[in-house]
Specification:
By secondary structure, this protein is an alpha+beta fold. It contains 18 helices and 23 strands. Helix 6 runs antiparallel to helix 11.
């Protein structure tokens, strides 16, 4: 146990002790019933008792090992002479990260079991009163409350008969307990890495496997785990604990759907799974092609298309200078690819450090949104003719420096968008080796740059461009409109992430920058030297204002266009599946343009709502605006690097069908009938 965990545990138990006398007067957030499998156990037999626990909505209880912050339940028994209580047996837990701390929890109803041994030689009809005091911790994501309950039941020595309904309940509870693995496992830790090799038949399904250690000292709880099959074994790789364990390690290997195996691992040698280089590079090639096509489609987005259009027309204005055209095309491509590769590298580094981030991770920070807001507004003012950009020149002006900067800008403002092919490609990049993953991000950049690259290197395409003329000024003014709309959308996102005050600050920063740029434009028109002096302090003050914006607490949002939509959680999904209802689950973010288009055009329509209501379809909405790590892991489990993600669970199905990233109303209305 680390020092932090020891202090947390000590503090919690001190508070529990001090508050125990008041527990009966406090409202309880975890209802518990003590249920015997039979009220008439035979003398000399064993009877199982269940602690049937039901957390209040929004609260959770803890596993035997609570993780970074939870604590184990303590039981104090009062038993008749000769009766002995065994160890408490826990079902397979779930995971919950709060403020960067991993918790092993139960958010849905659960039952822990304990066996009582009844002494032999007792006469039939002997009464056996059983009393137990339970001290435990129950929490929400904001607060924790130590609670105490004293539970009791009375057994009578009899024939050991079990009621069929009670037997069914206990059978269901026992299926949630981890089963003995039967074969010894092996673990090894070196250079900060932990590996666990678990014997497991190659043909046996493992689902979303995850290892829960029973005690501290094995792994860094919050670090991501990689599970790889290697013939008849599973290798779990993750970050080792800061203070490593020695000797045997016990834990539970969860295999999905609340099932798992009890694992005992001895220290030994665990070789990493040999990488299938050929398979990885084949997967990388497929992902590269998907990223290339996805990047190409990003060029039609309103924040990228104006920039691409003006750069293309700048080549037409430059005439037939082949060398200059190719130089600008290469510079533009270099700017795009450099930004995509840099963002991909930062993404992989953050994930290697344990963060559950995905593509466009930077947009989860309102300060980045604020900077983008100022940037797009400035571009829109430039396109509208308010001012002219000096060297290095941006869209609409020639020069390799301007082309490079324009490419970098186009790639950066394109990150809120995800289109067909792109989601699956970037999801694959997250599980590929780093070099192969960087190839995928390079493909995305090449896809974005491809139209301008072709125009620069294919003279026939340049000859098809319209000849320069006064119409280009009008077109430039027209193209300012989608850039202004992009700025408006970013202002809305800023308000959603950080509140109306932050949105007001962002709009005030645009006003300040606009005044400085207008003054600069006036000085440029008059031929004044040092024309940029008014704009520089205005832009600096605007940037300082938006950089100081702080995010507000995230709140789950649901689609108002579909009645009864609920915030997504794996617990709620499992409950709906147990009810036999079909489920449409979708994952969105306020900064995701593709998400919002799909919501307005297909999801939040009257036809979709009517079809879902007739089919009794439950709708779950995962809001990933602020980068919720729990949602991030779920999205990653479905081979996606970010949003949008649309999942359809037909009635009775455990595994979903992943829907395309561009939806239509007809596509959704047809789902309930399938």
């Amino acid at each position: 146990m680390t020092a932090r965990q020891a202090w947390v545990a000590a503090f919690v138990w001190i508070v529990m002790t001090l508050s125990a006398s008041l527990a009966g007067a406090q409202p309880r957030h975890l209802a518990i019933d003590l249920v015997p499998e039979t009220a008439r156990p035979a003398a000399g037999s064993t009877v199982t008792l269940a602690f049937d626990a039901r957390p209040e909505k929004g609260w959770h209880g803890y596993w035997k090992n609570g993780g970074d912050a939870g604590v184990e339940t303590r039981l104090t028994w009062t038993l008749p002479a000769g009766v002995r209580a065994g160890a408490l047996r826990y079902p397979v837990p779930g995971r919950l990260i709060v403020a960067g701390l991993m918790n092993y929890v139960y958010e849905a109803p659960f039952a822990t079991l304990v066996d009582l041994t009844i002494p032999a030689g007792l006469a039939a009809g002997t009464r056996l009163p059983v009393r137990v005091k339970a001290d435990y911790l129950v929490c929400t994501e904001q607060i924790c409350v130590p609670e105490t309950q004293t539970l009791s039941t009375e057994l009578t020595v009899g024939d050991g008969a079990i009621d069929p309904a009670t037997r069914t309940r206990f059978d269901a509870w026992r299926r949630k307990l981890p089963r003995p693995l039967g074969s010894p496992a092996t673990w090894a830790a070196a250079d900060g890495a932990f590996r666990l090799a678990v014997p497991f038949p190659a043909k046996a399904p493992i689902g979303s496997a995850y290892f829960y250690p029973l005690a501290a000292g094995a792994i860094d709880y919050a670090a991501p785990q990689t599970v790889t099959r290697d013939g008849d074994r599973i290798v779990v790789a993750t970050k080792a604990a800061a203070t490593p364990a020695s000797g045997s390690i016990e834990g539970v290997l969860a295999t999905g759907e609340g099932t798992g195996f009890a694992v005992t691992a001895a220290p030994g040698r665990v070789e990493p799974v040999a990488a299938d280089t050929g398979g990885a590079w084949r997967a990388a090639a497929i992902a590269f092609a998907g990223a290339l096509i996805g990047g190409l489609l990003l060029n039609i987005m309103p924040c990228v298309f104006p920039i691409l259009s003006l750069k293309a027309l700048s080549l037409a204005k430059a005439g037939g200078n082949e060398r200059a055209a190719r130089g600008e095309a290469l510079a533009y491509t270099a700017g795009v690819v450099l930004v995509c590769v840099a963002l991909g590298g930062v993404l992989l580094a953050l994930r290697a450090g344990g963060s559950s981030v995905g593509w466009a991770f930077q947009l989860q920070d309102p300060r980045v949104i604020g900077v983008l807001l100022l940037l797009t507004a400035a571009i829109a003012f430039n396109l509208a003719g308010l001012f002219e950009l000096p060297t290095p020149r941006f869209a609409g002006r020639s020069g390799a420096g301007g082309a490079f900067a324009t490419g970098a800008l186009a790639a950066f403002v394109a990150t809120p968008c995800t289109g067909p092919f792109m989601g699956a490609a970037l999801g694959a990049a997250l599980v590929l080796p780093p070099v192969a993953a960087m190839l995928v991000f390079t493909g995305l950049g090449l896809g974005i740059a491809l139209p301008f690259l072709l125009i620069g290197f294919v003279p026939a395409l340049r000859r098809r461009l319209p000849r320069p003329g006064a119409w280009m000024v009008r077109l430039r003014h027209i193209l300012s409109v989608p850039m202004f709309l992009t700025a408006l959308a970013l202002a809305w996102v800023l308000g959603r992430q950080a509140g109306v005050n932050a949105m007001t600050i962002g709009l005030a920063a645009i006003l300040l920058a606009g005044c400085g740029l207008w003054w600069t434009g006036q000085r440029q028109a008059g031929g004044r030297v040092r024309a940029w002096w008014p704009a520089i302090p205005a832009l600096v003050l605007g940037l300082l204002a938006v950089i100081l914006v702080k995010p507000q607490a995230a709140t789950a949002s649901v689609a108002t266009g579909i009645a009864g939509a609920e915030p997504f959680s794996e617990t709620r999904l499992a409950a709906l599946q147990r009810e036999g209802r079909p489920v449409f689950a979708y994952f969105t973010a306020d900064w995701c343009l593709t998400c919002k288009v799909n919501e307005k055009a297909a999801i939040e329509t009257a036809a979709t709502a009517r079809a879902f209501a007739n089919g009794k379809v439950a709708v779950l909405v995962g809001d990933w605006t602020d980068g919720d790590p729990i949602l991030g892991r779920f999205i990653e489990a479905h081979n996606r690097a970010g949003v949008p993600l649309y999942l359809w669970y037909p009635k009775g199905a455990k595994q979903p069908r992943v829907l395309p990233q561009l939806l239509t109303t007809g596509m959704l209305t047809a789902l309930p009938g399938r």
